[in-house]
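Need a sequence for this fold. Nothing fancy.
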């Protein structure tokens, strides 16, 4: 990430649809587009304040399953009660768009790099915009659902010291997991690009998982697990069976896969001696479960930064 990139990005639109809600439009040279960000600010927040506030980042998922949705920067505020949960919290909640299939990474693009560079946008451009103009402080936690969970743990591992806590709710946190008889995480990347950006080649994200295995490993939370020392980590996922929030459909093979890789990831952290809390439950890949997981996990996330 180049700081020059961050200096070139800028807010081109701002509106306040709610008492604590601030929506930003940010023009980004590393995306070649305008991206949107929703902020939940504390009740006593002011851009002219003499203090800063800690920051909770919430990353959204992509349309891999019926429950995943594609809501961008509004997903967490529309599908959960994050506003009510943080009503009295002295924290800024940042909910950025991650694109239709951005995978929370700077795309490899056959080795050429270039747009889209979602990791650079979030952690260089947007972070500096928030710190310079919106009183965001240096204490940060990050959480995400589905591919946002992958992003949360990848960001925390790839940028040591940037986040004090990281949580994945149904995130495919082992991208190189292989199942010869079933669904692989690489299949999810391919499917996400096919749905979100059908004109692009899915191998533009990190290359072919065999031929560019080094690139994949550089962005795989499972392979980066040792870099999470000092970060409070939480991982949760459903087993894919019908649970309390489901309406009687069949088994969810997507969530079952994610449960398998989440358990493997947690197991690797345990072998490395890195503390991790987990919640593996009966249920599918759907917002009602992620809303419940956020409620349960939020106090621990905030305790690390406030």
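Here you go.
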């Amino acid at each position: 990430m180049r700081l020059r990139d961050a200096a070139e990005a800028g807010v081109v639109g701002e509106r306040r649809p709610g008492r604590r809600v601030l929506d930003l439009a940010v023009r980004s040279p590393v995306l070649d587009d305008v991206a949107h960000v929703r902020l939940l600010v504390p009740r006593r927040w002011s851009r002219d304040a003499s203090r800063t506030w800690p920051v909770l980042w919430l990353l959204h998922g992509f349309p891999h399953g019926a429950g995943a949705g594609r809501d961008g920067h509004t997903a967490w505020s529309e599908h959960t009660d994050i506003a009510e949960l943080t009503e009295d919290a002295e924290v800024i909640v940042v909910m950025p768009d991650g694109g239709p299939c951005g995978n929370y990474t700077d795309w490899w693009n056959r080795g050429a790099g270039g747009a889209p560079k979602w990791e650079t946008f979030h952690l260089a451009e947007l972070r500096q915009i928030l710190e310079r103009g919106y009183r965001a402080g240096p204490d940060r936690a990050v959480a995400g659902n589905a591919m946002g969970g992958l992003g949360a743990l990848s960001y925390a591992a790839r940028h040591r010291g940037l986040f004090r806590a990281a949580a994945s709710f149904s995130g495919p946190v082992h991208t190189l997991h292989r199942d010869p008889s079933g669904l692989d995480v690489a299949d999810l990347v391919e499917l996400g690009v096919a749905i979100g950006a059908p004109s692009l080649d899915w191998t533009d994200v990190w290359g072919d998982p065999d031929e560019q295995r080094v690139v994949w490993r550089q962005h795989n939370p499972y392979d980066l697990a040792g870099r999470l020392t000092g970060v409070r980590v939480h991982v949760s996922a459903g087993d894919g069976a019908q649970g309390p929030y489901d309406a009687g459909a069949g088994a969810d093979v997507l969530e079952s896969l994610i449960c398998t890789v989440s358990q493997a990831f947690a197991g690797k952290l345990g072998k490395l001696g890195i503390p991790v809390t987990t919640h593996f439950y009966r249920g599918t890949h759907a917002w009602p479960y992620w809303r419940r997981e956020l409620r349960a996990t939020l106090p621990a996330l905030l305790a690390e930064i406030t």
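For context: The mean pLDDT is 94.
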